[in-house]
UniProtKB/TrEMBL annotation, chains A, B:
Pfam families: Lipase_3. Residues 207-334 form the Fungal lipase-type domain. GO terms for cellular component: chloroplast. This is Alpha/beta-Hydrolases superfamily protein. Belongs to the AB hydrolase superfamily. Lipase family. Its main location: plastid. PANTHER family: OS12G0614500 PROTEIN, PHOSPHOLIPASE A1-IBETA2, CHLOROPLASTIC. It is found in: Plastid, Chloroplast. GO terms for biological process: lipid catabolic process. It comes from the Eukaryota. The keyword Disulfide bond does not apply. One of its GO terms (molecular function) is galactolipase activity. InterPro entries: AB_hydrolase_fold, Fungal_lipase-type.
Amino acid sequence: MDAISSTIHHHITAAAAHRPAANMFPKLLALQPLAIHDSHSKPKKSSRSAVESLSHLLHLRMETPEQKLIVQQSNWNLQFDHDEKHNTPAMSPREDVSDKWREIHGSQDWESLLNPLHPWLRREIVKYGEFAQATYDAFDFDSFSEYCGSCRYRENRLFEKLGISKHGYKVSKYIYAMSHMDVPQWLERSRIAETWSKDSNWMGFVASPLFMEKPRLSVGFLSIYTSKCEATRYNKSSASEQVMEEVKRLVEIYKGRGEEVSLTITGHSLGGALALLNAYEAANTIPNLPISVISFGAPRVGNIAFRDELHQIGVKTLRVVLKQDVVPRMPGIVFNESLQKFDDFIGTLEWVYTHVGAELRLDAGSSPYLKRGLNLLGFHMLETYLHVVDGFLSTSSTYRSNARRDVALVNKYCDMLVDELRIPPCWYQRENKGLVCNAHGRWVKPRRDPEDIPSPTRDQEVHVHGIEMRESCERFESLLSV
Amino acid sequence: MDAISSTIHHHITAAAAHRPAANMFPKLLALQPLAIHDSHSKPKKSSRSAVESLSHLLHLRMETPEQKLIVQQSNWNLQFDHDEKHNTPAMSPREDVSDKWREIHGSQDWESLLNPLHPWLRREIVKYGEFAQATYDAFDFDSFSEYCGSCRYRENRLFEKLGISKHGYKVSKYIYAMSHMDVPQWLERSRIAETWSKDSNWMGFVASPLFMEKPRLSVGFLSIYTSKCEATRYNKSSASEQVMEEVKRLVEIYKGRGEEVSLTITGHSLGGALALLNAYEAANTIPNLPISVISFGAPRVGNIAFRDELHQIGVKTLRVVLKQDVVPRMPGIVFNESLQKFDDFIGTLEWVYTHVGAELRLDAGSSPYLKRGLNLLGFHMLETYLHVVDGFLSTSSTYRSNARRDVALVNKYCDMLVDELRIPPCWYQRENKGLVCNAHGRWVKPRRDPEDIPSPTRDQEVHVHGIEMRESCERFESLLSV
């Protein structure tokens, strides 16, 4: 335990989500071994049909926001007065977690913190989930935008725009990923010719905390991990290299100042699987760096050898899994093997992702705010996860009555909330898709604020700044506090 | 011809559209005789399959805004510089149509005005179309709103909110319709218990022009025409009675002042069919009132007897029909016959709606801005009609190069514009579906501005005002100019 509270822990976190919600599923499935299943003579009936219905339903539901509601048979009664609830701050008071931070980040494999769930750990999990959610909420998936596939905001206003500056972090670098040749439909692409980038998508960010006794760093990413191409603007280095470069840079800075540094990587769905790859690489690249992974609804990743290696190098993994979510039951991407070679693996592998680290297993049925019934997409959404985590006390308790997180967030991209709450389904949308009526009476798309236009050069400048900072901790501090 | 330009023509117009766009088709079809077709032993193959695909496609397209584009084979080149076009006022200069108003409103059955299309008539058609469009754009179809099914704005700000106050009209009365027992799914209903009305939907408006040498009145309606119920708040009188009462009231006022009055009724789709019923009733109720109907994409209505009677009483009808739109080819509702009795008619009737008055037949292929290919919904949308009308010169001409109407409007509820224009499909949407983040960090639906809350009492007050006005033209003038 770290008893000296004045020690500054620089905690690096990677918030990884793989796609904006509106398109993630078809492409997530494209990466699964399901396609190979199809060529097998004896596919496993049960898993195939589940997968097919998932694919089918998700695809349909993605494009057809459910208008008809599943009839509520529950005798759920409104548990609060609307106005009272609406006038309650959505944030809880924050405790100083510095004394317990190593344990909260997995030093003891979360053994004694999960059931009942320690309130400090709950808050940390929600925070990391909100970092992963940020990559969905800020992603520009307007195919008529010349910035399609980028982040809608520049680094220094991302958290503010998304209302998560409360966590006290600041983005230090954006990470970009390029299309993998095997999965050509992976990226979000603009329909128009001249775009900010033809090859890359925004993938996430590296961030570090401000004004806290125990500042931390965060890294987030979205998509495929190892591709690069000299001819591109954003992927002369791969996403993997970008993350590692930035993490190494920050670790060096903080270690050079005699401070403790740790890295937590977080991600949702495929992003959760990628977080594990990132952790593996970071552990092999940077010796003696405490690394933890907190994933949400991630599919299974890797084989037994990979599991053993992760364990050996000390990567701590906490998988948050919703009982109703089928994605964590699906085989995920396989590390170090090309997709073509997947055939060799299937059948011989026991999928073992669940054995890497700890699992926080939650039941959506514990929440009185959520509809019952089958909603495969809804039960996989990250906001649904965060809502259930927020109310979780222990496996033997009901949803906690003093949960503070805004329940309305659940319905951002789906239709999961009971009607009594009167929150429209899929409500997270831009007014007129960004069109505005100009002085001449014409509906036009305003030019993006130059500050928010992606630029590999500007990223480079930020980076160079960072390197200069190594020579001057004071100047670095001032950069962080801008 | 009216040579005395100081004569004031009070022109009453009924802008009728039947439903908000997002839900109109399944319910429109529910009113068609198609269901009766089904019970026939020998349905007409071609029309049935067309209808089935329409129903199927429309239903799907309604709920699944098309993301994939039909590949453009056209060699269409961008015909204008974007910025230049965006800086061109969307309005053309207005001429004084007073000398020609009788002819423009059908006194000569539009014989010499359609091909080539007289520019003044084009402008009148677009104006009436925009009145009909207003009932779509302002309709509250949020099923979680307690005002679901009402107009989102009160009478005195409807046109301003929709950007059509340029036409110089002022709403004098809103019209409400109630659910027809035979078509229980007709109305838009709120999912929540306490609502502004359980039985009625906003249906349209009566309006009159301001500050013009030749002011006119407008009436608009949306839905079923003749139902009423003493127990309801909004339909103690039927929509039909509400319209007639208001029209009669205004006609009396203007006639009492020695002024000329005329009535034009306009509507889109089923609203166009209902406009004809309204015209029939008005002609039989108010003697010597010149009445014209301008409909857009309306299905066929009525039988030979109805046609003959309309003709005899002097109702002038101009049907605007898009060649690619299948709805005008479909049989519509039958006047004076219950839906159950429809069986008696089918087969013995020659559908003759096209013989009532004149037809302005347009080809969407004339517009270089519209996608080719099959888009049944898109070709039926009122905004598509208005776009094609705006560019129509004659059957032998191409789309006029000096058309001023904003092309972007076409994509409000569909995906009809070529990619080069960069206008997102289905872009007409509210920011976060009306939710706002309050000071406590919670997403809530703000209470509707009390001014915009529907109230049968307030409507009554407006009405009473109107009656008092009969005794004082000056006071009436001041009401109009408020």
